Amino acid sequence: MKSLPWIRWTLGLLLLCTADADSGRKPNFVFMMVDDLGIGDLGCYGNTTLRTPNIDRLALEGVKLTQHTAAAPLCTPSRAAFLTGRYPIRSGMAAHGRMGVFLFSASSGGLSQEEITFAKAVKEQGYSTAVIGKWHVGLNCEDSADHCHHPNSHGFDYFYGTIMTHLRDCQPGHGSVLYFVHGYIPYKALSIGLVSLALLHIKGMITVTRRVVFGFLVLVGVVVSLFDVLVYTFPNLNCFVMRGPEIVEQPYTSENLTQRMTSEATEFLERNSERPFLLFFSFLQVHTGLFASPLFRGRSQHGLYGDAVMEVDWSVGQIMQTLERLNLKENTLLYMTSDQGPHLEEISINGEMHGGYSGIYKAGKSTNWEGGIRIPGILHWPGVLPAGKVIDEPTSNMDIFPTVLNLAGASIPSDRVIDGHDLLPLLQGQVERSEHEFMFPYCNAQLNAVRWHPPNSNAIWKAFFFTPDFYPENSSACFHTHICLCIKPYVTVHDPPLLYDLSKDPTESTPLSPDTEPQFYSVLEVIRAAVSHHAESLKPVPVQVSPLQIVWKPWLQPCCSSLSQKGKTKIFLAKFVSR
Known about the structure:
This protein is α/β, with parallel strands linked by helices and 579 residues long. It folds into 2 domains: 28-167 and 239-549, Alkaline Phosphatase, subunit A (3-Layer(aba) Sandwich); 174-238, no CATH class. 32% of the residues lie in helices and 14% in strands. The protein has a 10-stranded mixed β-sheet. Strands 13-16-17-18 form a 4-stranded antiparallel β-sheet, covered by helices on one side. It has a two-stranded parallel ribbon with strand order 3-12. InterPro entries: Alkaline_phosphatase_core_sf, Sulfatase, Sulfatase_CS, Sulfatase_N. One of its GO terms (molecular function) is arylsulfatase activity.
């Protein structure tokens, strides 16, 4: 019986070699990442009211991961981790303040060129590489055209998409994300300060002249005016589409944008059908402001959000049909996921819920509760991966990096820590357990929790060092700040940490105690030792998501699309409308 794992490993290796021999070339890779999609939004993960037949088919014909997690619960750090196979704290893509993502295209922060992405690694092995859709890990460093953080600087030969995320401001009639800044303003402290100042003036302890009052009112007026200008110009400055290094639409029209990106993706597959390729299709949907093309509006039972999910599913079907038509299906590893959990606090200006569904899991985006980091994980490769297999072992979106490099024949970097693990042995059944004994979910740059899957045990312990303060208190979201934050006074610190066993309590509804769990203190002791070991592996790096790096810098502002390029977009839209 001891030789059984070796037999499985040998059979898996033979199966993979046979697939490569039949194709006569290295395997292709297609990665599809949906923005803010909840694990409970898909039929293959239990949703019975939202139709996703193409994604469900991938799960039926491939492997479904049920404990697949994002390395971070926000867009920018999660995508940095996915691209590099490393926790974002290692690449400087974890914020030390409130804001954990880039809001402006003219920010100077971004994924450092010192980092190795899977695109950069496979490009050296002869692969043609492309990212289509959302990027959101930076653009420029010192001037508006250096493109130091652009996809072309990170191993992608071709780029068609947006540097930023798709915000409310990019969708006419959906309001502005900037209006949620009021959740970060310390109104209470300001009010106390003004009242105290007035009382001291009345009692004669200080003198506040009319000139000071007038100057203060002028200052408030200037700040309000500048804010209104920022809101007005935000779409023009940040909502644009690039093809390679050039802006081709500014601001862009979201109508039929998914169809356009799907067309770009299928054309890339057609152009590169005779050589190995890697395509990263990064959907703008279903991030708010929500949009759906006319063909999909009103088709779901879940409003505009459901319509957008159905359009994503259609796009997945188009990619699959193209692979089949080009006879590439059997030589292509396809990966379908989300960047993190759903944004539960998203409510439209009309009061409609625009966030996704976490299923049975607690909370959503920006938190490390399971609803914020447990994401869909579907891998599809006919003839190499077993059909209909379900794996209930801890895995991470960082695992794609070493998996791809090993399959492409690239060497895993030895000069840095790689936190992901090759998934292929687990997917093919060569091993039954994940290599992730410990996982370290961060909230920005703060270690928020630890996940421990002990050897020879079915337990999956999860300890929280702090948790966000929900508002309202009986909810599982942070409606007062539009997204949960990682810093005081918006969190509660736990000492001892909150402890759960996810194998018995996946909904994280009942924290354990010394009275209910005999191993309580011994588990926490092991976890603390793992934290110390993990901390020793961290090296100081420049912080890319600091306030100084994410603030808008006029000299970095990219501009502008030409009239001829806008005309081409209008022609493309007209073709879709006529269909």
